[in-house]
Write a structure and sequence with these properties.
three-stranded antiparallel β-sheet, about 325 residues, Rossmann fold, alpha/beta, elongated
Length: about 325
């Protein structure tokens, strides 16, 4: 859906096809920028070998400390320098490296195919997801996730390396999800409960999960699934919106179209404009409170933002 300008000074939907379409080559082109993004280092609970430090101690690659030798210690771990200096045998301890799964939950419902500035919300979400995928590959993480619409969902179980990232980008670039599996009757309702429940079943404890959506249709049931997800995983709630959703354009009469139907929007009523703005503020506040209660990180982004800069500034914190 787009809102064409009906008078001078009103912004229009960009004609550039890159603002309204997602292609695999465009997402691949984000590789260098994605590799330069530093994903948050969180407490890793996963049990497979990889590139992140965990609280588990054992024979890994990262030295942790030296302590007095104890019966049963492997003699190959004796720290001869400390032993010679102190006169007592000491053992080296290493902090094991652990692998992390990164899951991307990407909303591709009809409401995400909207913008009046920059690019469609769906395009912004896909680009942000691609950046996160490339960053995950660069850090040795396994990448997976779900792309969902009203028709259902497609998912990728976490995979290592570039093939996993490319597979997920193909899912992002496919239109319509016409052959998607899942729960069509639940998805078509617009409620986020079904895709949230599916994500909760797919995620394993210790994953880093990114939720990329406008979160329309966030029911109490969907909130419960996300809160349960956050109990055992690090979750980042990336809220994508368009400037028009936060505030209506100046008083006037505007034509609104979804490509097949057209209607007129009159923004001259001050009370209507105020209620409209308050509704969006309430929606965003609800998401912020959900994140705060559940220990999620909250990252708001708009369609006119540069996804690289939005992620770079937003990932300075450490979601727990």
């Amino acid at each position: 859906m787009s809102i064409p300008a009906s008078r001078p000074g009103t912004a229009q939907q960009p004609a550039n096809s890159r603002a309204v379409r997602v292609t695999v080559p465009d997402l691949i082109a984000l590789r260098r920028a994605g590799e330069q993004l530093a994903l948050p280092r969180t407490r890793i609970r996963a049990r497979t070998a990889g590139g992140y430090l965990s609280a588990f101690r054992g024979r890994g690659m990262e030295f942790d400390e030296a302590r007095l030798y104890q019966p049963g210690d492997d003699v190959r771990t004796i720290d001869w320098r400390v032993t010679a200096r102190t006169g007592e045998p000491h053992t080296k301890l290493y902090r094991e490296e652990r692998e992390r799964a990164v899951l991307l939950w990407v909303d591709d419902r009809a409401g995400m195919h909207f913008a009046t500035r920059g690019c469609l919300k769906s395009v912004f979400a896909a680009r942000a997801a691609a950046l996160l995928a490339w960053s995950s590959v660069a850090h040795g993480d396994r990448i997976g996730g779900l792309v969902f619409s009203e028709q259902g969902h497609r998912e990728l179980r976490p995979r290592r390396g570039k093939p996993g990232a490319l597979h997920f980008m193909r899912l992002l670039a496919e239109n319509g999800n016409s052959s998607a599996s899942g729960y069509p009757s639940s998805y078509s309702s617009g409620d986020l409960a079904a895709p949230a429940a599916r994500l909760r079943r797919v995620a394993r404890p210790g994953a880093l999960v990114y939720l990329l959506s406008d979160f329309r249709g966030l029911s109490t049931e969907a909130e419960t699934h996300l809160m349960e997800l956050a109990r055992h995983n690090s979750v980042v709630l990336l809220f994508v919106s368009d400037p028009l959703e936060a505030e209506l354009p100046p008083p006037g009469r505007y034509h609104v179209s979804d490509g097949s139907q057209r209607l007129a929007l009159d923004t001259g009523d001050a009370a209507f404009r105020r209620n409209y703005a308050e509704a969006f503020a309430a929606h965003q506040h609800r998401l912020q409170m959900l994140a705060r209660r559940s220990g999620m990180a909250f990252l708001p982004c708009q369609t006119r933002d540069d996804p690289v800069e939005c992620l770079r500034s937003g990932l300075r914190f450490d979601p727990r």
